[in-house]
Write a structure and sequence with these properties.
The chain is mainly beta. The chain contains 1 helix and 27 strands. The protein has one helix spanning 205-209, and strands at residues 6-11, 15-25, 34-52, 57-77, 82-103, 109-112, 118-133, 138-154, 168-187, 190-201, 213-215, 218-220, 229-242, 246-258, 261-265, 273-276, 279-288, 291-304, 309-323, 329-331, 339-347, 351-360, 380-381, 387-388, 392-402, 407-414, 434-441. The strands form 3 sheets. The protein has a 20-stranded antiparallel sheet that branches. Strands 11, 12, 15, 16 and 17 form a 5-stranded mixed sheet that branches. Strands 23-24 form a two-stranded antiparallel ribbon. The mean pLDDT is 91.
């Protein structure tokens, strides 16, 4: 049998601070009927600590992120049937990353590689939405948004440790997106919706600059050539309410991605494999794939039963495909197997009881994405020894009692049958049977 690869792997204590302030002005003037401003700041800190088997050097990588955001939103009524919504947004993220080594025998410390570059990511946007009600049955909504994002990454702190091809990199890109949708309410509890939209996702620091993050047999390197991925979406939904006790809804959607961000084999300084941590590893990086698509549906039912009882169930199913470098298609790693939740509830003035079941389908080996078929450390093994994602379910109980207007006591038992399972592509087994008790105070 092969020797263990790791002697230890853990995350250090996580820390965080969140500040959020908002103010609203409802004085009507020529520009707006209502203005709302929101300012927020969040500081996050986390670390990863690991040591290879029989290696005295313990590595620690620390990440600190300061995130600032400001939103300015306005509403303005047109004539009696129209409404305008417009505003501005700014988001700034400052990422500080560091690494160090400690000899567990002597306690000696030295500098080491960081997980990320020192980076600044920012996004600035403006939007306008127009809503027009033709009648009680017809509502139209159209909108546009322009986003400009900037990313500056400095890799110089890791040049002494890795053969990084560039000391600094930056991205300055913009995107115009829009949406057009309508709601039709024919009466008798029916509602139909159609929405067409575009969207984009800008590369973040994790996408563009993760510094030599490894998995068995592969190493992920920075790719300064990334561009934003764009999405083109269509969604159709229908809902029907029967009296005051039954509601059914159904949604079908389709998304086409261009320049989709996926991890692929890569070359570093012309090499497709490098020696990393003493192991020859193939080089990979997040890249803009040619195209990808995701489509699926979701459906739900809600019942109000006599005596304070209620029942609800919701299921989601989706299919994802992405184009490989050689022109073939593969299932997308980001498309999960079918999953859902079913709940039975009982509610009184002070007491809430709930029994629920969460469940997920499985994915056999031959339907796993190509890039996942080699990750046998993430998945179970089938009768042929191939990795696959098993189906799973959990049964859970939850109760909440309102002691006073201020205090509430809640308790629950999760995973009653003590199932051993992993959510798709997580690589970490979920908790077994566990008990949760909490006290909540609202002032």
């Amino acid at each position: 049998d092969a020797a263990p690869q790791r002697a230890g792997w853990s995350k250090g204590p996580a820390g965080g601070v969140l500040n959020d302030r908002a103010a609203t002005d409802s004085n009507t003037n020529a520009a707006d009927d209502q203005m709302r401003i929101r300012l927020a700041h969040q500081r996050l800190e986390e670390s990863r600590i690991d040591r290879d088997f029989n290696d005295p050097q313990r590595r620690t990588r620390l990440e600190q992120v300061s995130a600032f955001s400001a939103n300015l939103d306005f509403t303005k009524a047109g004539h009696s049937r129209s409404q305008f919504y417009y505003g501005l947004e700014a988001v700034i993220n400052d990422v500080r990353s560091s690494g160090s080594y400690e000899d567990i025998r002597t306690g000696a410390r030295s500098s080491g590689p960081s997980r990320y570059p020192q980076a600044n990511w920012s996004s600035y946007a403006g939007y306008l939405t127009w809503e027009y009600r033709f009648s009680q049955r017809w509502l139209l909504q159209a909108g546009a948004r322009y986003n400009h994002f900037l990313l500056n990454a400095d890799f110089r702190g890791n040049i002494d440790f890795f053969p990084i091809p560039t000391a600094e990199t930056s991205i300055h890109q913009g995107a115009l997106t829009g949406s057009l949708g309508g709601v039709f309410s024919p009466g008798r509890g029916w509602q139909l919706k159609l929405n067409l939209s575009t969207g984009f996702r800008a590369p973040n620091v994790d996408d563009i600059g993760k510094v030599f993050d490894s998995e068995p047999g592969a190493v992920v390197v920075p790719n300064p050539g990334l561009q934003a991925e764009y999405a083109y979406n269509a969604e159709l939904s229908a809902a029907k309410v029967f009296g005051e006790s039954v509601r059914l809804d159904f949604t079908a959607y389709y998304t086409w991605l261009n320049n989709a961000l996926v991890r692929r084999d890569f070359r570093l300084n012309g090499q497709d494999s490098i020696l990393y941590d003493g192991e020859l590893s193939r080089v990979q990086a997040v890249q803009n794939a040619a195209v990808a698509r995701v489509y699926g549906l979701q459906a739900g039912i809600e019942l109000k039963l006599p005596g304070g009882f209620g029942f609800s169930s919701r299921i989601n199913a989706q299919v994802g495909e992405e184009e490989l470098d050689d022109g073939r298609t593969s299932p997308s790693r980001h498309a999960a197997p079918p999953f859902g939740v079913t709940r039975l509830t009982f509610t009184t003035d002070k007491l809430e009881l709930e029994a629920n079941a969460f469940y997920s389908g499985g994915i056999p080996f031959d339907e796993l994405p190509v890039e996942e078929q080699a990750k046998d450390h993430l998945y179970a093994r089938d009768e042929n020894g191939n990795p696959y994602s098993p189906a799973w379910y959990t049964l859970n109980l939850r109760a909440l009692y309102q002691l006073t207007e201020v205090l509430a006591l809640s308790a629950g038992v999760e995973n009653l049958t003590d199932q051993r399972y992993r959510t798709y592509s997580s690589g970490i087994a979920a908790a077994g049977r566990n008990v949760v008790i909490a006290v909540r105070a609202e002032f």
